[in-house]
Amino acid sequence: MTSEIHIKDNMNRMYRMTRHIYDATRKYYLLGRDHLINNLNPKDGENICEVGCGTARNLIKLAHKYPNVPFYGLDASDEMLKTARQSLEKRGVKGVKITQAYAQSFDPKTLFNLEEPLTKIIFSYSLSMIPPWKESIDHALELLPTGGEIHIVDFGNQSGLPKFFRTFLFWWLKMFHVYHKPEILDYLKQLDEEEKGNLGFEPLYKGYAWHAVFKKL
Asked: 98: which strand partners?
């Protein structure tokens, strides 16, 4: 509990002011989010949750693209959720529920009063910010039924881009406590080898980002 409060306090300090310009600035380097949205392919009535929903940018786009699907979102930062609620109201999106919770421990039944389990869980540039990223993946798998999917988009190794760009980007991200974590993909491959699910993976934009879908067996 103490570590979760510490995470929330850090996130609130980080986003208390920057939440106001978050979407305007992040659109230039959080690439691949729309690729994930366009390839989600949900069925009507599925319960889908974004972990680390931030300003609700993705949830708003998801709700418009898939109007017959209920979407849910959670974030550790109360400050980000202030902007998320304002954005949802401003755009007239009523079918999305969001709340404060933690990736490694959230209970969708309690948070959202769900009778059926989540079928897809989204991590869009959030695992690179979450210290207990492995626990968060494990928790997502515990929540999902057989056939449920984890959808992830995050920073790649920049292998197809100039070295100076890679060095600058990783330096810039570190200022916001964001880190390229190749161990995330390694862990997904390990889970695939252990036959806990099937991993689909594709690099995006010359290795700038990657998109993965892990389907639980």
From this structure: 73
Residue 127 phi, psi (nearest 5): -65, -30
The mean per-residue pLDDT over the stretch 147-154 comes to 97
Cβ atoms of 39 and 61 closer than 8 Å: no
- Taking the whole predicted model, whether its pTM rises above 0.70 is answered as yes
Provide the 3-class DSSP secondary structure of residue 181: coil
Nearest 10 degrees: Cα torsion 76, 82, 86, 89:
60
Could you give phi then psi for residue 116, rounded to 5 degrees?
-105, 155
Phi, psi of 136 (to 5 degrees): -70, -40
Per CATH, the number for 2-216 is 3.40.50.150
DSSP 4-25: HHHHHHHHHHHHHHHTTTHHHH
CA distance 173 to 159: 17
Q: Under the phi-then-psi rule, with left for phi > 0, alpha for psi from -120 to 50, and beta for the rest, what region is 35?
A: alpha
Nearest Cα residue to 106 out of 167, 173, 51: 51
